[in-house]
Amino acid sequence: MIHNAQLIKQGAEAKVYLAPFCQRQTIIKERFTKAYRHPTLDKKLTSRRVVQEARCLSRCQKARIDTPTVYMVDTENYLIYMEYIEGYSVREYLVTPEGQTESAQTKVAQEIGRALGLMHNIDVVHGDLTTSNLLMRSETGGSVVLIDFGLSYVSQLVEDKAVDLYVLERAFSSTHPNTEAMFEQILKAYGESGKASKQILKKLEDVRMRGRKRSMLG
């Protein structure tokens, strides 16, 4: 039981709480155990997943990518204590009148593309890129923060990074109609900041083709 905790989100893999820690408001993420797995195996896999998420966050921080700062990792209880970010999601922003202007979308697209390029430069694959997992900090005038690295991992494979971009593209097309131009700006900024961006964007075309074939086949 987390003391004075307020549950703010529950997903398939974890619960997210807001609670005081070291005299500040803190996000505490608690990963679920899986009842269908052998308890010893489950403990090992869940602990490893917690450590992997924390390492990917720390790796991004060292590369000066804006992500929540990790304060503490408790592998026994499958908890990560991290920075609480005052702000709103890109998903929420894009449905506001301000978020629908061309200049605002260009600014946000450039920040997203640059952040993803830097993240892939250090071989971190997010695994769950959506506009809900991109926050905008209130105190910095809406600079973009990457959050929820629960499915993240380290990979040098061009394919994995292309799939990461494809997941975000699908999220844009399904959640935000008429944002094709904005996503193209994301890819343009990505191309300017990513080391292997040319190969990754070329691979994205292949991933799109496979996605279209799957849709046609049902």
UniProtKB/TrEMBL annotation:
Keywords per UniProt: ATP-binding, Hydrolase, Kinase, Nucleotide-binding, Nucleus, Phosphoprotein, Serine/threonine-protein kinase, Transferase, tRNA processing
**Places the protein is found:** Nucleus
Q: Pfam family of this protein, just one?
A: Pkinase
Asked if the keyword Transmembrane helix belongs to this entry, the reply reads no
Q: What is its EC number?
A: 2.7.11.1
List the Gene3D superfamilies hit by this protein, alphabetically: Phosphorylase Kinase, domain 1, Transferase(Phosphotransferase) domain 1
Under SMART domains, the record lists: S_TKc (SM00220)
Record's PROSITE patterns? PROTEIN_KINASE_DOM, PROTEIN_KINASE_TYR
Alphabetized SUPFAM superfamilies for the sequence: Protein kinase-like (PK-like)
Quote one Gene Ontology molecular function term.
protein serine/threonine kinase activity
Q: Which GO terms describe its biological process?
A: tRNA processing; tRNA threonylcarbamoyladenosine metabolic process
Cite the Protein kinase domain residue spans from the record.
2-218
Q: What InterPro entries does UniProt report for this protein, alphabetically?
A: Bud32, Kinase-like_dom_sf, Prot_kinase_dom, Tyr_kinase_AS
Q: Name one GO cellular component term.
A: cytosol
| Recorded catalytic activity of this chain's protein | L-threonyl-[protein] + ATP = O-phospho-L-threonyl-[protein] + ADP + H(+); L-seryl-[protein] + ATP = O-phospho-L-seryl-[protein] + ADP + H(+)
Question: Looking at the keywords, is Kinase present?
Answer: yes
Q: Which family does it belong to?
A: Belongs to the protein kinase superfamily. BUD32 family.
The record ties this protein, via PANTHER family, to: EKC_KEOPS COMPLEX SUBUNIT TP53RK, NON-SPECIFIC SERINE/THREONINE PROTEIN KINASE
Function description: Component of the EKC/KEOPS complex that is required for the formation of a threonylcarbamoyl group on adenosine at position 37 (t(6)A37) in tRNAs that read codons beginning with adenine. The complex is probably involved in the transfer of the threonylcarbamoyl moiety of threonylcarbamoyl-AMP (TC-AMP) to the N6 group of A37. BUD32 has ATPase activity in the context of the EKC/KEOPS complex and likely plays a supporting role to the catalytic subunit KAE1. The EKC/KEOPS complex also promotes both telomere uncapping and telomere elongation.
Protein name according to UniProt: non-specific serine/threonine protein kinase
The encoding gene is TP53RK
